[in-house]
Amino acid sequence: MSNEAEYKPGLEDVPAAKSAVSFLDGKKAVLEYRGIPVEVLAKESSFEEVSWLLIKGSLPSQKELADFDHGLRQRRAIHYRLKDLIKCMPADGHPMDALHASVAALGMFYPCPTVSDPAKHWDATMRLIAAMPTVVAAFVRTRRGEEILDPRDDLDHAGNFYYLLFGKEPTPAVRKVLDACLILHAEHTMNASTFTARVTGSTLATPYQTIASAIGSLSGPLHGGANEEALRQFEEIGDPAKVKSWLDSKLATNPKYKVMGIGHRVYKVKDARATVLQEIAEHMFTESSRPKSYETALELERVCAGIYGPKGIYPNVDFYSGVVYSAIGIPTDVFTPIFAIARVAGWLAHWHEQLVGNRIFRPEQVFTGQNDQKYVPLERRP
Ligand code: COA
């Protein structure tokens, strides 16, 4: 590629695919899954129904949803040797690494070697959605020295995940919060991990490799990992009264310091998902006292609005999600795996879409090196 003017760092504003899965208007905080606003889905729908909607393109009939739900429940259990593999993982390793390795291994236990078989596709699609919560919970329990629990097929997706983590059923309110969080994180147009899934999928790699690649992409602190960093940041600040001095000292050391959980490539107003998560947090905390981390988050949002608001930098989904997860007892390093458990629905929707009329991704580069260099034998180099 000779025209450097065409190069856009981070591919900003460069369309990478045609997609009908979701729509985002970052100036108006509109996010729709297959045309339906995400706020409506978070209140009215379930993660199972939203997964079908994203992958199949329209809301399921009662029978379709019942069959899909049944198929998911049947695929929650994992092979005993995969459990052994998880037990061998280092207890101080990150659960995202455990998930990444386990999803690649799932593809060995439940192979889908060819992407041209629709029945195998659908089996892998359901297995990935159904088994990722089992894998995450298995790692979390193992590192705590606890037995891995068998999935419960009498519980829905969110309820079963909570049970697998804690060995007890969630209250209806907590189940609804977890379900809403999964819905809010299920899809978000052409972000880094979705692009990764499409690139890997375009090579006709297996669905397990495709999703494992996307998990790796999601793990970074500029993407899914920001929710962990956001909660740690509120804990580091410690108290709403210390927000201003904390931010002043960060900016004094580094004027480009990035506050975690704010800013977005596309949103120039507050992320609609952050607004819903804040409502969920408000609702959860009405009867008990608000945690310090939530009070601190509110104050940080207020202070940042004054500094960064004029640049269109506002809270994104990661600003309040950690506060909500923490309130229901989920360990901080499991926030990003939950993001993956939700986003797998969107990744799979894009993978299915990519395979229709697929063309392998092969972009260009702007070459900045030197041509015609001589090979100097090792002994003659300084
Ligand atoms: N805190 C302070 N300033 C920020 C900021 C943040 N979180 N995010 C962006 N900015 C500023 C940058 O310093 C830059 O300022 P400049 O124009 O004066 O140089 C400008 O906004 C553009 O930032 P940039 O990093 O180039 O934007 P991007 O589109 O490449 O990055 C993010 C988007 C999400 C990676 C970025 O906003 C970020 O790192 N946010 C924190 C991590 C996070 O919450 N990620 C989750 C995203 S859902």
Explained architecture:
The model has no long low-confidence stretch (mean pLDDT 95). It contains 16 helices and three strands. A hairpin with a 4-residue loop joins strand 1 (22-25) and strand 2 (30-33). It has 382 residues and is mostly helical. The relative contact order is 0.14. Bound molecules: coenzyme A. Coenzyme A binds at residues 10, 222, 226, 256, 258-265, 308, 311, 313, 316-318.
What's a concise summary of this model?
By secondary structure, this protein is mostly helical. The protein contains 16 helices and three strands. The chain has helices at 38-44, 47-56, 62-74, 80-87, 95-109, 118-143, 157-166, 172-184, 192-202, 207-218, 226-237, 243-253, 272-284, 292-308, 317-327, 335-355; strands at residues 22-25, 30-33, 36-37.
